Amino acid sequence: MLVNITPAVRKSEAPPGFHLLSKPTGAACNLDCKYCFFLSKDVLYPNERLRMSDEVLEGYIKQLLESHRTPIVTVAWQGGEPTLMGLDFYKRSIEYVAKYRRPDQKVEYTFQTNGVLIDDEWAAFFKEHKFLIGLSVDGPKEIHDQFRVTKAGNGTFDQVMRGFQYLGKHGVDYNILCTVNAANEDHGREVYRFLRDELQAEWIQFIPIIERATQETLPLANLGWSERPGGQRILYTQAGNLVTERSVKPDGYGRFLIDVFEEWVRKDVGRVYVQLFDVTLEAYFGSYKLCIHAPTCGYGPAIEHNGDVYSCDHYVEPDYKLGNIAETHLLDMVASPQQRKFGTDKATTLTKQCLNCDVRFLCNGGCPKDRFVNSLDGEPGHNYLCAGLKAFFDHVNPTMKTMVQLIRGNRFPAEIMEMYAAKDFKGGRNDPCYCGSGNKFKRCHGRAG
Ligand code: SF4
Ligand code: SF4
User: Fold this and answer.
1) Is 366 close to ligand 2, i.e. is its CB under 6 Å away?
2) Above 90 in pLDDT, residue 299?
3) Minimum-distance ligand 2 atom for the alpha carbon of 360
4) How remote is the CA of residue 330 from the centroid of ligand 2, in Å?
5) How far, in Å, is the centroid of ligand 2 from the Cα of 100?
6) What is the model's pLDDT at position 149?
7) How is the beta sheet containing 203-208 ordered, strand by strand?
8) What is the DSSP string of 352-364?
9) Which atom of ligand 1 has the smallest separation from the CA of 343?
């Protein structure tokens, strides 16, 4: 019985907490987003019904709660598309949490979805159990529909917006997850304004699309990753130093982020949380909440529909399988030498260029999955996105330093917006002041002394 497994490792020797991403439908999804290489992962489980059984669900919840010594535990659902499990599955998950939760444990739920199946019933459930929904939207319709399509190849924007309306109707908390890809990399500001103004997003995460391929796999990879009748399937692995035509370009990624930053820093500091901006500011205080730009990683494993556990959501592939919860307790897998090495390799495999980089404390070489090009001095294993990351971190560095000074002086980082407004002011002394007071500039912030 899967629920009877006990950890072998002493809890004091294991990480106190971690963030396990659960994929109850494996790679199964109701959409066919062209850049989604996860669609290919069904190759790992041929002839299997990609649905988490009740036994795996119970074992997963029990082991997750047993593993944590932190007061808050996150149950994180992801896909594939997790709504395909049906609502009853998640109702049972809540019952298992109630059964196994220690009195001192608070459980939070997150749920990453394409939004297409969300209706009144789903939204009411999310609200009742305080789920935080991550909704995938790539920008306004004409941008979103480029890659986020149905199995028939049609754009999904209208369906996503219908689901979004239900979230709004029930007052469900949501974040927006927006990929940065070849179709939107030149439209940073437009995408950001859409998410902020039309979707009223207050928390946004940008995710660069990088689909790796080799000379041999590139033609197939460019076609997409889903099943095609009679078509040849390939399993996506983190291999190859080429990328698909949908992938963001390094300088495009940098441009996109800078474009968004220039808008955000003028209008939205303290009001809209853009994940990368937030974690960049925190890095100046030595705190790293996002694995990608932390010195080490390895605390974000993924669990498949059948209980298989992998080192990371991006490494669901045979070489990175840690075991199955039916045979090994989750905590033993997270604490295993294999997984600890996976995490520390992030720091020990940096190229010389990274080691000597003046923004390394912000970047830390990025995610290992993206380290597949040569550095400027020809060393392999350098981050594909480096040019964009460097441009972004260099660009924001002076502003971030000012925000750090504001925080250290017990002031609000949002004061940076007024500094920008002053810097941007092009009016004359008799024009209305940039601060919006309605007074003439000369009688307001333009007053001498
Ligand atoms: S491999 Fe990348 S995404 Fe995975 S845990 Fe490490 S930094 Fe995070
Ligand atoms: S900006 Fe480039 S060189 Fe600097 S740490 Fe990041 S990946 Fe390495």
Assistant:
1) yes
2) yes
3) 5
4) 33
5) 43
6) 96
7) 273-274, 203-208, 173-180, 132-136, 106-113, 72-77, 21-22, 302-303, 308-310, 321-324
8) HHHHT-TTHHHHT
9) 6
Beta bridge partner(s), residue 243:
212
Does pLDDT of 449 surpass 70? Answer: no
Residue 331 has pLDDT above 90, yes or no: yes
Nearest ligand (C-alpha, residue 353): 2
Q: List, in sequence order, the alpha helices (H) in 153-233.
A: 157-169, 188-193, 218-223
pLDDT band at 236 (very low <50, low <70, confident <90, very high): confident
Q: Are 157 and 184 in contact (CB under 8 A)?
A: no
Residue having the nearest C-alpha atom to atom 6 of ligand 2: 365
List beta partners, residue 22. Answer: 77, 303
Does residue 129 have its Cβ closer than 6 Å to ligand 2?
A: no
Measure 279 CA to ligand 1 centroid, in angstroms. Answer: 15
Beta bridge partners of 338: none
Residues 6+ apart with CB under 8 A from 344: 296, 298
Buried b (16+ CB within 10 A) or exposed e, 204-229: bbbbbbbbbbeeebbebbeebbbeee
In whole angstroms, give the CA distance from residue 287 to residue 300: 17
Instruction: Give CA–CA dist 73/75, Å, rounded.
Output: 7
3-state secondary structure of 292: helix
Look-up of token digits 């698909």: 244
Ligand 2 pocket mutation pick from 390, 392, 394, 395 by most atoms within 8 angstroms of CB: 390
- Name the DSSP class of 390: H
Please count the other Cβ atoms lying within 10 Å of the Cβ belonging to residue 272: 19
pLDDT, mean of residues 238-249:
95
Looking at the CA of 299, name the nearest ligand: 1
Q: Quote the pLDDT of residue 230.
A: 64
Question: Reduced to 3 states, what is the DSSP secondary structure of residue 314?
Answer: helix
> Is 373 near ligand 2, meaning CB less than 6 Å away?
no
Give just the sign of the alpha carbon dihedral 333, 335, 341, 344.
Answer: positive
Question: Catalytic positions, please?
Answer: 313
User: Regarding beta strands 371-373 and 132-136, do their DSSP bridges make them parallel or antiparallel, or are they unpaired?
Assistant: unpaired
Given a contact cutoff of 8 angstroms between Cβ atoms, the answer to whether 302 and 20 are in contact is yes
Mean pLDDT calculated for residue range 425-443: 85
Of residues 67, 132, 55, the one with CA closest to residue 96: 55
Q: Using CB atoms within 10 A of its CB, is residue 266 exposed (0-12), middle (13-18) or buried (19+)?
A: middle
Cα 439 versus chain centre, distance: 44
- Residues having CB closer than 6 A to ligand 1 are 291-292, 297, 300, 312, 314, 346, 367-369
